[in-house]
Design brief:
Elements (H helix, E strand, L loop, with lengths): L2 H15 L5 H4 L6 E2 L9 E4 L2 E5 L17 H13 L14 E2 L3 E5 L5 H11 L10 E3 L8 E6 L15 H6 L5 E7 L4 E10 L6 H14 L28 H11 L9 H13 L1
Parallel strand pairs: 4-9, 5-6, 5-7, 7-9
Antiparallel strand pairs: 1-3, 2-3, 8-9
Helix pairs in contact: 4-6
Amino acid sequence: MNSRGFILLFLLTTNFLLSQNSYDSIVNHRILFSLNKTNEKSKIVVIGNDTLYDNYNKSHNLNYLNNKPSKQKELFRRYLSRVFCNTNKDSKVVYELKQWNEVITVYLDDELPKKVINDFKTFYNQINNIENFEINFTTNIEKANYFIKTTTEEINGYKKDYEFDSEEERELSILTGATYNLATDKNNKFYCGVLTINIKNPKDDFELLKQLKQLFFKSLGQFYSSKYVKDTSLLSKVYINADTISEFDLNFLEIHYSIIYDQKINSTIFRKLMTLAKNN
């Protein structure tokens, strides 16, 4: 049997042996091989005179899917709709979970008002102690992987750019006068981004800060806004621009980043993980 045959046999055997009530039975881990054995449970592949060991040795705690019983139903209902748009693997358009897989280092354009810059930093510095997630700020653009820049050009200001149901909806949308673009790898992991905002568009610094805060939060996971989310949430279309980040938004990020997933995750897979967490 050639080397490809050994590897195929190994992968098929691994999948067969996985328990049907384990994380790995739902999200297949990425195989990492080494010439050195690093743990007693290492599976092996023999190619010629070489023995390769599978170095995967992670255990995933799914408590984040089952540790808020009093608010769990509503929180996860919103999460599924704001991340997956209530689609599944069989939908015509399938939405998948997207994550940052490194520290987000933000550089803010000094054309922004100083108070807006300071208030934005103060607001997002409230996010701490969320596993696998960190935001910091820099005054050196060369050290940044996220650039918040200004423009005086029109952005999404016309219906030809974005389909709004009414002129009022267009004027109130956070997509009027601002946009963001994120670079992602083939496994739905973001590694850099640019948020561009028209500093002539908002009526005052209050509106400018509000728009920046909401768009930036959306870009932390390609989240989607809704008029049905409470107005204290950054994902609300009628957000009140609070000084503190809401408990809902913090819980939302905690769910999103408790595990950096090895594979692409759609809502069908995520619901299976929820069921597994509930039953274990």
